[in-house]
Amino acid sequence: MQKKTTSIITGAIVAIASTALAVNTLGLSAPPVDTGTTSPDVLAALDGLPLNNSSTPGYTREEFGQRWKDTDRNGCDQRNDVLARDLTDVTFKPGTGNCKVTSGTLADPYTGTVINTEDRQQLGDQIHIDHVVPLALAWDLGASEWTPEQREIFANDPEELLAVSTSANTEKSDAGPAEWMPSTGQCAYAERFVAVLSKYELTVSSADRDSLRETLTACLEGAS
After folding, report:
1. What pLDDT digit, counting tens, does each position of 5-46 carry?
2. Closest CA to 90 of 57, 127, 143
3. Is 195 exposed, middle or buried (0-12, 13-18, 19+ CB in 10 A)?
4. How high is the pLDDT of residue 72?
């Protein structure tokens, strides 16, 4: 698995760099709060994930390396990259090369609430960066077998990161889809969750697979 995973992570590095370029040059907005639709391909991807109902001891946050490391080497750490991507009306600390976000407005993809922040204190208090696939869960689903460098890349992948309300992030904690789903935007969340699992060839528990399938099927039916 090690050799195969290495190639996956190498591809992820390229994807991270491409995402960062898009964020900085195109001013991409946050992912939609809810699409209401999904593709049948997502269900096929979900069904292709190996099942894994076991847990792996030994997880700590430190196993996933430096927090918000500038893995794409654009001069801004990943937290600020995500804030700049997902917020609107963004302001930056002067002299930081438009890196350090000091305020902005978030349409929370997990609750639908619009959060306005006026300074860095409010920003830090009201908005967190969520790992779509919680790191503790990813550890159980296969990341424990990766190298530290590979886990660090995963933890800082923009596709794995979303700016969300502090309350929703706290409520979610390390839960998978069987235990927690956002109150809005379930289609977009389920699709993104599967995309991350597939990208890194992680496994999925039976309960999470069933929850994701139920959500994605409802999204497809709603689109028909």
Report:
1. 555 554 554 444 444 333 333 333 344 434 456 789 999 999
2. 127
3. middle
4. 87
- Pairwise CA distance, residues 74 & 189, whole Å: 27
Q: How far apart are CA 80 and CA 100, in angstroms?
A: 6
Q: How would you class 16 by CB atoms within 10 Å of its CB: exposed for 0-12, middle for 13-18, buried for 19 or more?
A: buried
**What gap in Å lies between CA 86 and CA 79, rounded to an integer?**
11
Helix (H, G, I), strand (E, B) or coil at 120: helix
Q: How far apart are CA 94 and CA 79, in angstroms?
A: 17
Which strand (E) or helix (H) includes residue 180?
Answer: none
Whole-number pLDDT of residue 118: 97
- Six token digits for residue 1: 């698995």
Paired with 89 in beta bridges are none
Going by pLDDT thresholds of 50, 70 and 90, the confidence category of residue 4 is low
Q: How far is CA 124 from the centre of its chain?
A: 18
**CB-side neighbour CA atoms (13 Å) of 88:** 9
